[in-house]
């Protein structure tokens, strides 16, 4: 059993709370001095206890990328910052190379239940809003490409980002969704109507809202407005104070309550020093914790961790702690179809727990009932 002065999830906050864990699952939750008998009691004192964080979109950390042969250090670093479940994002590449990366993610999943699968951020992206993706690998989806990625990604491919204005994109969206893959709209120059068509075809995510897409214009509302207007859609947000201004982030939270998922979009420099790195095949320079494609002003992912995103949500956008916690836990879990087992402190849910100091600094982490920090 784990006890804390405050227990917080999407359902609110309770004082003097406790969570009873049996194996890898939460068995009971309550508050006050009366609690079921437990073999061991971990008293966290004045800590805040939350569900483990779920990151839908991250490319690596601790000097490693999820395309690398080994990325255990990246996972360990993010877990030390409270991320207990991760989707491993892969940048645009040749289909054959993506298939090899998916095989490595499959091997990681076989050994590690905290890895939820892979996210293909490409190759079906617009060359006119490519961000930190190598344009030579960008292409419109063909039936053969979709077949190859679905075959290589069987049981591994969790989500994919697609620019819906590309030829063949809507058919590709339908096929991925039918195969159980969550589709995000992103790296796009699409119109409001094109985004709506993608959502009607089954896309349910907006990949890092505001970044690598048209902004909101009063006569051309674009994909952000289409996502806000559609209750089926979850909107990713990189809340590092660099990608999106805090006032704009606050506006998004107000416009789409309960549908904003905080993601890191972290690359290899997360948890590491400034310097030179790579993102896929592109050289990246990191200075002051901000990553750019070398020699350009194009942002190349982030060095964000999810605990920092939580603190930013509270301090920079004025979110209540339950709302900020939900954006890191229940909202992303539900976006992937795991809303009945991940992201809440409730009986039957995974025993993924994060203990935070009153200043929201990570103190302890458990994933599937196992101590990670």
UniProtKB/TrEMBL annotation:
Its EC number is 3.5.1.25. It comes from the Bacteria. InterPro entries: Amidohydro-rel, GlcNAc_6-P_deAcase, Metal-dep_hydrolase_composite, Metal_Hydrolase. Keywords: Carbohydrate metabolism, Hydrolase, Metal-binding. Residues 48-370 form the Amidohydrolase-related domain. Pfam families: Amidohydro_1 (PF01979). GO terms for molecular function: N-acetylglucosamine-6-phosphate deacetylase activity. Transmembrane segments: none annotated. Belongs to the metallo-dependent hydrolases superfamily. NagA family. This is N-acetylglucosamine-6-phosphate deacetylase. It comes from Curtobacterium pusillum.
